[in-house]
Specification:
It contains three helices and twelve strands; from the N terminus they run αααββββββββββββ. With 280 residues, the chain is of the alpha+beta class. The chain has three domains: 42 residues; 45 residues; 162 residues, Rod shape-determining protein MreC, domain 1 (Thrombin, subunit H, Beta Barrel). The longest helix has 39 residues.
Length: 280
């Protein structure tokens, strides 16, 4: 009988021992074990993402010729639009360079885009993050800004060999300096979480008291200010949809509606600063 009782409590003893070891273990051991565990499970998550892409490929192969023809026409229209946007972007860059030279302003830091596929998403109550399929072997640095076609996605939090973790805009740990488009007064932004059946949101703090939401159908857009040197200026963040008096009474607090596509991104771009560009 005592022997059976010993076998029944043995798993709890082992669990308590592991828990006690983890609490009192040095920080270096914790970091090493955590990194090793992540590198061990990375091939499984990356392999699953490749399998999903293979499934999508064969699903596309089963489409009819008429469907593929219509998709090709839509793609051709998009390509024509993008070609015009590229030409406009080049002309704007030339104009900015001319004005910087005319005014004697230092050039803004240059970046290159590192395109990465999304491996997994984590939207629990503690973390608002995604895993991407590129890491230190691809030149991804910690703290690099991550963007997509709708604006800011977030910031690279941790980097491993083959994967990286990106904390999203909705993550309460992410803070940045932002401005209202057309207004140069800086404000503070932080994530406010994400829940099912509701768009991801953020909080804008230190909003000037003269800011008013006149037309709910066209709320002011929040963009990055460029302060801090992490995010380039002018990247879309979200829309200011609600205002209330701040705790100090000198400023307002606002709710920022983020892009709904943050929860289902399949591909993002990491902005990697060019090494030859000096810091401002």
């Amino acid at each position: 009988m005592p022997k059976k009782r010993l076998f029944s409590i043995k798993p709890f003893v082992v669990l308590f021992g592991v828990f006690a070891f983890w609490i009192f273990a040095p920080l270096a051991i914790k970091v090493t074990v955590k990194s090793a565990f992540h590198e061990f499970q990375a091939p499984f998550s990356v392999g699953a993402s490749y399998v999903r892409e293979l499934q999508n490929f064969w699903a596309a192969r089963l489409k009819s010729k008429s469907e593929l023809y219509e998709a090709g026409k839509d793609l051709a229209r998009l390509n024509a639009t993008y070609e015009l946007d590229i030409l406009e972007n080049q002309s704007l860059k030339q104009e900015v360079a001319r004005l910087e030279a005319l005014l004697g302003l230092p050039a803004r830091p240059g970046y290159k885009y590192e395109i990465a596929r999304v491996v997994s998403r984590d939207f629990n109550s503690w973390w608002q993050q995604i895993e991407i399929r590129k890491g230190s072997l691809h030149g991804i640095p910690v703290g690099a800004p991550v963007v997509f076609s709708g604006g800011v996605v977030g910031r690279v939090r941790t980097v491993h060999q083959y994967t990286s973790t990106v904390e999203l805009l909705s993550n309460s740990h992410l803070r940045m300096a932002v401005v209202i488009e057309g207004d140069n007064r800086p404000m503070s932004f932080r994530g406010a979480g994400y829940t099912q059946f509701r768009s991801p949101t953020g909080l804008a703090e230190y909003v000037p008291t003269d800011i008013r939401l006149i037309d709910p159908a066209s709320p002011p857009r929040i963009v990055t200010s460029g302060i801090g040197g992490v995010f380039p200026a002018g990247l879309p963040v979200g829309y200011l949809t609600r205002l209330k008096p701040g705790a100090s009474g000198m400023f307002q607090d606002g709710e920022v509606r983020l892009d709904t596509n943050l929860s289902n991104l399949s591909e993002v771009a990491v902005l990697v600063r060019l090494e030859e560009t000096p810091l401002p």
